[in-house]
Amino acid sequence: MRISSVGYSIRQGFKNIRRNLLFSLASIGTIVACLFLFGLLYAVIVNFRTAIKNIEGNISISVFFESGISDNQIDLIREQIRTRDEVATLDFISAEDAWKQFSEANYDDPEAARETFGSDNPLANSASFTITLKDVTYQADFVQFVSSIKGVRKVKSSEYTANNVAAINTFVGYASGFIIVILFLVSIFLISNTITIGITVRKEEIKIMKLIGATNAFVRAPFIIEGVTIGFIGSVIPVIILYYMYEAVIDYVVGRFAVLQSIFDFVPAMDLFKVLAPMSLLIGIGIGFIGSWLTTRKHLRV
Prior knowledge:
This protein has helices at residues 3-19, 21-58, 71-82, 95-106, 110-117, 139-147, 159-201, 203-211, 216-256, 259-263, 269-299; strands at residues 60-65, 87-93, 128-133, 152-156. It is of the alpha+beta class and 302 residues long. The model has no long low-confidence stretch (mean pLDDT 79).
């Protein structure tokens, strides 16, 4: 397509928007609403998954050894566990450390309790590995693997908590995906209606253009530009609104409920929007392009 034809298509695309201003504004408003809800949902999901990751980091698996096991055998068990890709952290807790932690958690005067027992460690056979996984959904398979290692006496895991966390994570993923699909379908439907009206208004003009030899691309281009422009405008507005709203909400929540900051880390706005902003632009432009392309293909018969 020549440069002059490109310029003509761009001008016609903007004329179509002005000509069908009411429907264009309705389409833009719908995309703004859909992408605003999408961005809101994305921010909630990202922060939720961050919280889930923090919870997963606290769901540990304890591996206890058989009585009288040597240091070399413990090292061999450690190497076998480290070969597993799902392992996030692996820490060794000696019998002495285990006794110290137990006394500090259960006695008002832990030092006096340890002095009472002296060198007689009541947890002499409690040396263990404390392990966390990258994804708790792998816990059952991992526990089965570790239990089969020679020298392992017992494996203690939080199966109930891990299953609940995994179930919540899965539910949120499916629910958010369903909502996003519905929002996008509504946006495409409204843009399709807007383009259809533009085609109806210019029906006679399009027929004449085809009779004098206009190419398919030349006829389609203004409507594609119209849809892409609507999608672009509709995607920029919610990103700007969400950015300032997200920062304001975090500042308010942290300022009003300071205790939350010690137990929950909100994702910084820049980290969130460096993904959300380009994603929203691509989605908005994509919705506009798909809606206009499908409509022109259906109604122009070119």
